[in-house]
Here is the input.
Amino acid sequence: MTTSENPRDAFRAFTTTCTLITTDGRHGPNVMAAEWTFNVSYRPFLILVAIDPANRTHDLISESKEFGVNLVAEDQIAAMGFAGDYSKADTDKLSSELFETYPARKIHAPMVRGALLNAECRLVDTYGMGDHTAFVGEVVESSVDTEKRPVILHHGSHHLGERIARAPGLVVAATPMRASSRSSVAVAGELTGPDRADAPVIVRILSPDGTSVLESSARADAEGVFRADLDLPASMTPGPHHIEARAGDLRGRARLEIL
Here is the structure.
């Protein structure tokens, strides 16, 4: 195993996407590359972007109270690099042929054509976060090109890989995980794999030596989710037990402590 204590390696260990943040104001239109851009709410649709106060974009958002978010697509990697390497303070980046812009519908900032996502945002909150400022914008107009794919950043730029399929399995949990005899325990579980829909599930409480103390049954729904409510008998002895769920050849276990 190779380890590193270099903070830069720690920063690059995270996997993110990248956006082109567009603004307009007293310094004119601008674009910058921003890695720390996140959807933080569905209703309303809110996007947060974290920006160093030293960047000209920081002042432009603070003054204009709006910004554009353009999620970088794979064929925009050169534009992403250029927008990140130069500053508005000395370079009008949007003059480059790398950027084809179009007028936004509801904000003044230009939008970058060809992005995976274009979102026009109006500023609703600002937070100081260490050495960056978090700007939260409400999306007032957006469009997505479903044929585009994002650039993935992890120790450099990468393509989005194939979706990782969940192998057939069974996961189960007991609530509460510490319970008294004569109380009730809710057993929640999930089946994965192609045969999960409507699958029958056997749920057992096992004593420390593996003896079945109580048995019940459940049936998974179309998504493989199931639930069983168990009433614990008065005869249960204090100590560690297990919840076991079985569906065909699949088995899942959860810990249960009897108080």
